[in-house]
Amino acid sequence: SPSPKRAKPTYLAVDKDNQIIGYVVPIFREFATGLSDTEEARVRDTAAYMARRNLFTSGLEMERSELISRKETMRESAERITLNKREHFKRMNEDSLMHAPEFVIKPRSHTVWEKQCVRLHCTVSGWPDPRVVWYKNNVALDPLANPGKYKIESRYSVHSLEINKCDFDDTAQYRVSAMNAQGELSAFASVVVKRFKGEIDEFLPAPRLGPVSEYGITFQTHIVDKFGVSFGREGETMSLGCTVIIYPALHRYQPEVEWYRDDVLLSPSKWTHMHWSGDRATLTLTHLNKEDEGLYTLRVTTKSGYETYSAYVFVRDADAEVEGAPAAPLDVRCLDANKDYIIVAWKQPAVDGGSSILGYFVDRCEVGTTHWIQCNDTPVKFARFPVTGLVEGRSYIFRVRAVNKSGISRPSRVSEPVAAMDPADRARMRGSTSAPWTGQIIVTEEEPAEGIVPGKPLDLQVTEATKNYVVLSWKPPGEKGLEGVMYYVEKCVSGTDSWQRVNTEIPVKSPRFALFDLAEGKAYRFRVRCCNSAGVGEPSDPTEATTVGDKLDIPSAPGKVIPTRNTDTSVVVSWEASRDAKELVGYYIEGSIVGSNVWEPCNNKPVNVTRFICHGLITGEKYVFRVRAVNAAGISQFSQESEAVEVKAAIGGGILHASPAPPYGITVLECVRDSMVLAWKQPTFIGGADITGYFVDYREVIDGVPGKWHEANIKAVSERAYRVSDLKENKKYQFQVRAANMAGVGIPSLPSNTFLCEEWTIAVPGPPYDLQIREVRNDSLVLLWKPPVYQGRDPVNGFYVDIKEADAPEEAWRGVNTKALEKTYTKIKDLKEGEKYVFRVRAQNKAGVGKVSDVTEPVPALTKPGTKEIVVDVDDDGVISLNFECGNMTPDSKFVWSKNYEEITDTSRLSTETKGTKSKVVFNRPGEEDIGVYSCLVTHTDGASSSYTLSEEELKRLLEISHDHKFPIIPLKSDLAVELLEKGRVRFWLQAEKMSNNGKVDYVFNDNVVSQGEKYKMNFDKNTGVIEMTMESLTPADEGTYTFQLQDGKATNQSSLVLIGDVFKQLQKESEFQRKEYFRKQGPHFIEYLSWEVTPECCVVLKCKVGNMKKETSALWHKDRHQIKVDEHLGFAEGVLKLEIAQISKKDAGVYEVILKDDRGQDTSTLNLTDQGNFVRIFIFAANSSTPLKITSTDEGIRLYTFVSYYNDLLQVTWHYKDSAIAFSDRIKSGVVGEQLWLQIKEPTEKDMGKYAIEFYDGKGGLRRTVDLSGQGENRARVAGGLPDVVTIQEGKALNLTCNISGNPVPEVTWLKNDREITSDEHCILKFESGKFASFTITGVNTSDSGKYSILVKNKYGTESGDFTVSVFIPEEAGSKKK
Question: Where is 1075: in which H helix or E strand?
Fold first, then answer.
């Protein structure tokens, strides 16, 4: 019998799901043992095999020998097979066999430990045989460059890369590239090298983009000479261009150049022209419109990869044709096209011209014509409109204009052409190619056959409803005949059964219809009938009642706006999205320079993100921003203005980091078979806004090697606890958590510890979680926690709190409470100020005390500066409230009130009011239900919080106060008081807080009611509440008690004032004095009595201010009772009398007097200038006029001097040196020349350096002017260095000494020997060179040269000397002395 056909062998290894996971090397017939792998394994288990193996020195050598033998056999067999294949392929048509490379088996990713080896392998098919190259992070691997590190093999279409002794740097993404003449293909695999003892990096480095080598050529692309952020105006032409350098430069090589706007590929059109010159790519926008605004990207693609560059283009509105008119709408497009109507949609402009937009006009134009027709008579506010009255088959373009009270805007850019026909007809349309193009599409239909009456339309529904129109849509009946079906639409007011046909004249051909002229606010139902030549069918099922009005609401205003510095001309603006916004189109952003109140749009095309970079700002200016949301219904209100931000480059290049930091402290709260409940701690930095939720990831850990991360929740969770489901029992997992806010999702936390997913069966509770610390004070704080998720065998019945110092050992934990707490909060007292503490909590049930919670972060027991407490208040209406104020709030801060540390949500008993930095809760109906602990937490602060315990006793006290306030006595702003009026009249008065017109007052003196009369005058101003009683004067009989008694309905009050004894006598005396003063001022009198002042010229002026003068009034001056003759120094003008004493001296001392008198009376004023202190104080004014102490150089030395405006012998002057009075001598003298006071220092030396002062003394204190003479040392003559103290030299030797001389002017140099001047000669040569160097040279010394030498330098700023001694010895004498 014929042999059965053998199945084609396969060498692919697959898993249970038939997924290829590797390859199997075939066992060839020539294999040495002739056994399969499984048979060989059984043989290895036999005793004979074990004996044979023992013949070898080690099992490793035997396996290595067998491996080599197997490889040699496999290679020989494979080479024969390959040779046969090549001969076969040569005889076949080569073109039919050629194909691009294909990976039969792709390399797999590996995770290995350090110092292990890893092998990546793959199987590649293709003809001709592909060339395979391995890459590490896109860098080609060269085994020769790293001998022993990499081993690359390619055999029988199986290619491998072996990495020897992996280290941590081998963690990378590896790519294998296969290429032949038909193409190129790559596959990727990752290698993760992990450290021992759990020190594992939890992420792979991102692959680096780089050049790809193909056919031996690697293209490197560079984009230079780039276009930047650009600004244009509607109607202008703009060109964007970049120079592209491609290396190596191949002749006629054409890269792929593409332009994108907002990630949408642009195609050449009448609006966009593209050009490639061989080294420069250019995009020309021929006629700018706001639709052209966006992010433009140039992408240059070569066979080695691609390079991109992006920049934003802003398009500003063209000037309005009518002042105050709005900007043009934008992005006009057709949403739905049918035979009977086309729905046109557009976007509202950002600029309304200063007044709100009333609506929009839609214009149409038939393609091929230039005649525009307005489609709506009245403006429509909704940004969608169905245009009717179209000719079927013809094409139209549309434009939109906005209108406000000032006028109509420019028209928008026209839409793309669209034909008025059903979508089904477009598939069957045939255009006339012979006739010239008119914009009309000729539609042919099959010849109708004899029809039947159609059935009811199906699925009738209202697809869109506004106050201007309603759009219906339906499906044709399923059993319609061959003839085309048309439709009648009927309407009915809801609540009635009176149906009215809408399209009475012409039935509609499309299964859609737009209804106009419906009454806004009324509810309608609709139905549709089918019709054809056979008749009109039954009506469809009516729709539900639809109220005519805009179903789509205008979006709410966006939330908090956060500006962040970016560059010197741009700011990043982020905001919270509008809540519950439907069909949102995007957002408009506006900016304004602080204080200008002029708002400019930052974008003229809506952006559909919540973060935008506003460009074109003025560097250094401060801006505020606001945002509006847009949908088809309209534009929202503006958001609140942002905080001001200065436009300047941000630290770090303007990168915005507003997302939260990673959470931490991941723990397990409960574990069942297939799920685990996790808890974690809030990030230490929450970013630029409140945290909106958390995302949890998990991964399985197998044999210590983590797998891939998987998302546990797609929607963010708001709590810091989450149950991760769909886990596998008895498997180990790690978890990570990310926090999110409006700025984005933060980086993930560090992976948690590895947790085993097994069901907890312990009887005691799990750990409490979410420990929070509030109300930190110097000696106390409040600890809050949440009960454990895992209750144990029985419910939790209490909690224990432990405490220890932060740096104390574990043995220092001690309990705060000995009796279990029932509540999930406690106040911990008796803390040590400044000490840091940590806390933990344990729960208990009947079985015992459970696991401990996570330990809190260390917290110091310190009351933060500015901390305030909750204050209870009862207002005048008896309303009880709790008040809290926070002084360190941020713009994001909010007050959160809680009762028993649970947020207050029930507003029936409590009302919350917040204004600025103050917030309060008001008790609506205070009662026993309100007893508890009330707390207030201020978010976005450094833990600002406080609490107030409302106990039963405290509630009773507050209710009593509230009752008193509800039924008060008449409140008084001030009690009864007394004051003196003009002429010494006496006024008794008080002021009531509030009194009605029915209020009355009784005036009582010594228990007797007094009334209006000659002695008493009463007045009650009910508007101000001021009650007063006046008396002309006081007599001894008026001593006693005065009382005002008030009554207003049932409310009463009184206030008394006791005037007896010394108090009454003092008041009576003052009244008499005021009375006399009044009469004194009826004639000429002194308003200001005689006084003196010193002018800047140190002249003394006596002056007084007088009043009620007339021409006949005389003013007489006297000194020591002798009248002073009137001269030019005596004058009277503008109510002031003056007497000027120039160069005052002791002879001017005396008593000065001025007498005013006329027929109405006289007044006198005196001034005593004989007082020594008074007289000396006059001369201290001269001292105050002294100038700062200055220094000047003279021929004799240095002079210190100051000037005064006037000098007199009474001006006591003392000179000081270093805070000691100077003892004057012939060298140091002082004197006065005119108004100059001077101190002369003759021939100053270094000893004269220091602080000098001149002091003017007035008997009590003094005025001192100082100067530091140290600074003059820079110009004084000096000897600096070079001269020794003693020079011992042998007779006959040459002596040469040099020293440095300084000073300005150049000093004179004199040499002395034994205090006698010497001159230069042949034996002793003296030189002074360059004004700086002085030298002393003796050509051959002898014993007569011994002695004391000095150099003396001198200029006008001082003299200085340098001394040295020369000792000459004879050698023989020196030797004999030694002996």
Answer: helix 1061-1080
